[in-house]
Amino acid sequence: MIRSFFRPLFRLLTAFLILLAALPAAAGVAIEHWTTAAGAKVQFVESRGLPMLDIQVDFAAGSMFDPANKSGLAARTRALLDLGAGARDETAIAEELADIGAQLGGGADTDRASVSLRTLSAPDKQAVGIDILRSVLAQPRFDALILEREKERTIAGLKEAMTRPGSIAGKAFWAALYPDHPYGRQATPESVAALSRADLVAFHARHYTAANASITLVGDLSRAQAEQIAEQISASLPPGAAVPLPAAPAVGAGSSTAIAHPATQAHIYLGLPAIERGNPDFFPLLVGNYTLGGGGFVSRLMKEVRDKRGYAYSVYSYFAPLKQAGPFQIGLQTKRSQASEAIKLSRQVLERFLVEGPSEEELAAAKANLTGSFPLRLDSNRKILDNVAVIGFYGLPFDYLDRYQERVNAVTAAEVKAAFARHIQPKALRIVTVAAD
Amino acid sequence: MPMRLQLLIVLLCPWLIGTALANPYETTLANGLRIIVKEDHRAPTAVHMVWYRIGSMDETDGTSGVAHVFEHMMFKGTPSVGPGEFSQRVAAAGGRDNAFTSRDYTAYFQQIPKEKLEEMMQLEADRMHHLNLDPKEFEQEIKVVMEERRMRTDDNPQAKLFEQMNAVGFLAHPYRRPIIGWMSDLENMTAADTRAWYDAWYVPNNAYLVISGDVDHKEVFALAQKHYGPLAERPLPPRRATAEPLQEGPRHITVKAPAELPVLIMGYKVPVLRDIDKDSDPYALQMLAAILDGHDAARFNKKLVREDKVALSAGIDYDAIARGPGMLYLHGTPSAGKTVADLEAALRAEIERVRRDGVSAAELKRAKAQLVASEVYKLDSLFGQAMEIGQIESAGLSHRQIDRMLEKLQAVSAADVQAVAGKYFTDDALTVGVLDPQPLDGKPRRPAFPTRH
């Protein structure tokens, strides 16, 4: 029973944690990068400690690219990639991967569709794994019967999710933040039921291209081997073209949404659209949010809501920068009878922080943690892969990790206040409650 | 170390051999505290864990949940470290801290830059003996734990089913009680209950440290002596875990809760590892689980989800490492148009197929290949390596025998797998739990679906 913080959030938590990484210059990662002949971006980190290799291929093929009447298309396209490709049916793919002890992972979020391969680096095993990876990316069968089966399963899962207070609140929150942007659209049983094989084929042809790909390799291989593998992967893909983004989301107006539910606890979210990846205010917001609600057990929200009053087990705030303005969000769950008290308190904590900014002591504590924890963010191949894939996909500067500590340390209390004032207008807050009395 | 893994490592990373053969290192202080150090020099970080041999199974009726509530209180201060300051100090050190309570143990950990290890030891040693347990802090924290129970169990139909299924599957053994505790026990709990728990069990001779990372084991031993050495050992109270009587017939439970999809869990009483050398069935059960549910085309997913479409999902859970009695769970959700009874019949048929026809050489080889690879992948995580050592030790087994366990797994034959499928999956040892989904508005959505029993 984990005491805290492995909180059941939704799709963005992983990406969020990655960018909250705090990284001093001293222990940076040597990222090599280039572009393949076919036009795919490549990032490579050599790590010889273990006889294994991780490859992740990211495409701009997340749900933000779903056509308006086809919500769920990006997710279904990604899900069907490894259910039959090239010469292998879905059983052969799974069995051959298991035979070499390899693992295929990934998924689709709002921005990205990812396919990752973890394999032993022994040449005979690695070769099989890479062959399957190439095939899955470039030659998915999109078998019509398998699509029907997976649609049934997805629809059942969506219906189940719509009975769970946390899922209901999460969907309502995104809908409230992005009424006129694809980030606010959700797959429904109806939209999934209407998807056809031709939809998946067309989405795949447009988005799973070399120009739209970012390939990250970490592990037991040389630069020359990495170049060869990246060439093989991207050469299998059609060249394609970069996919244009939708119009940027507006900040919009504040709103309040209350949804009835029989649960014992109310689920509460407050937030608004805030910043995109690479926004110059990222570091002041990161440092400031540590004090507000990002710093685990030591944040103001944690102290006021959990420690002093026992209102909630989990309470937090974060910025989730995306390709386009991603949310700022405060979240908590509390006994349904005290929901309004808890919302009032959370707003007070936020508004006070907007007025005061962090104290010098809080600012120093935030910097100490964010810079001091740098080595923890990069102490496994998996973590290096996650970080470097984000840098590659979002086009962050390649010295991002090297300069992280310096940029955190340069933030002043005045900059925090100014950045919060620019991005958080209390009047624009969306408040979503499920199961509040 | 199993031959295949050893060969792999010799061939592929010979530089690991020096440490692989000596690692982990171990010592015991005069006060009974054991220290296990797994050196791993890939990155300048470390994991510091303190494991106490005390979990929810050591509680008594009326104070269920006290092991976990007490775990929360460990963050509420000592005379030298104020309430909440423990986590502030860890954060200031660039670390992350948390804790977890299980049926069998309670463990506390910090992930840190390696140079902060001593400060973590100082903090953990301090709260091993000097905790305040202020009643005012308790009054706030017990509310937090009740919110945790609402979040984890009361509003989570699947978790509620699992909780009630264990309460029926185990009649006498303390595994019948939920780790989080029954709500009325939380309501009745007092600071004095946590004090009694602390005084009885939080002593160095009931604990062990697991440290993994970029550290020198000799330096770690010396630091442990400096900070934990002065703590006095104390005799432990007797442990009186009631033995579970032999189950002599099937049991069934239904839980109604707001949800869309039914859930079926079938729990069979099975053995867990008690003697790593002499036992054989727990290894065969692990290989059976891998063959049924170890990858996307393993039998359950291939047959029940993909071919017959009787299930939206189907799986098997079996943990061979436990202080108490074992239970193996088959679980799943039926597809639209299929009933829980259909799914139960299909799960039974898969077990019967193994019992009757056995498993193929290819399936067994595949499961073993996955095992070999996973032994390499696990070395990518410091935290995972420390967890593995801690959990094995918590069941009274030795981390020194981890490699022997892997050898035994590699030695499992197709006949062994077939034999356990015939031996343990009997109705007399079965508890069936069903989640009967209810509409959110409380109005009946459809008649209660038929179940087999």
Short description:
The complex is a heterodimer of chains A (437) and B (453). Chain A is α+β, with helices and mostly antiparallel strands.
Strand order, biggest sheet of chain A?
Answer: 1-2-6-3-5-4
- Protein structure class of chain B: alpha+beta
Number of helices of chain B: 17
Strand order of the largest sheet of chain B: 1-2-6-3-5-4
Q: Write down the overall geometry of chain A.
A: globular
The rounded Rg of chain B comes to 24 Å
Mean pLDDT of chain B: 93
| Secondary-structure element series of chain B | HHEEEHHEEHHHHHEHEEHHEEHHHHHE
- Estimate what percentage of residues of chain B fall within beta strands: 15-25%
Helix content of chain B: 40-55%
Subunit arrangement of the protein: heterodimer
| Structural class designation of chain A | alpha+beta
Keywords:
heterodimer, A: 437 residues, alpha+beta, six-stranded mixed sheet, 11 strands, B: 453 residues, 17 helices, globular, disordered N terminus, disordered C terminus
Structural summary, described in words:
- The complex is a heterodimer of chains A (about 425) and B (about 450).
- By secondary structure, chain A is α+β, with helices and mostly antiparallel strands.
- In chain A, about 45% of the residues lie in helices and about 15% in strands.
- Chain A is built from 17 helices and 11 strands.
- Chain A has helices spanning about 15-20, 75-80, 90-100, 125-140, 145-160, 165-175, 190-195, 195-205, 225-235, 280-295, 300-310, 340-355, 360-370, 375, 380-395, 400-410, 415-425; strands at about 30-35, 40-45, 50-60, 105-110, 115-120, 215-220, 255-260, 265-275, 315-320, 325-335, 430-435.
- In chain A, the strands form 2 sheets. Chain A has a 6-stranded mixed β-sheet with strand order 1-2-6-3-5-4, with helices on both faces. A 5-stranded mixed β-sheet of chain A has the order 7-11-8-10-9, with helices on both faces.
- The longest helix of chain A is centred in the middle third of the chain and has 18 residues, at about 145-160.
- Chain B is of the alpha+beta class and about 450 residues long.
- Chain B has 17 helices and 11 strands.
- A 6-stranded mixed β-sheet of chain B has the order 1-2-6-3-5-4, sandwiched between helices. In chain B, strands 7-11-8-10-9 form a 5-stranded mixed β-sheet, sandwiched between helices.
- In chain B, helix 3 crosses helix 9 and helix 11 (about 280-295) packs across helix 17 (about 415-425).
- Chain B is globular, with a radius of gyration of 24 Å.
- The two termini of chain B are about 45 Å apart.
- In chain B, about 50% of the residues are buried.
- The chains are: A alpha+beta (about 425), B alpha+beta (about 450).
- At the A-B interface, helix 3, strand 5, helix 5, helix 11 and strand 10 of A face helix 1, helix 3, helix 4, strand 4 and strand 5 of B.
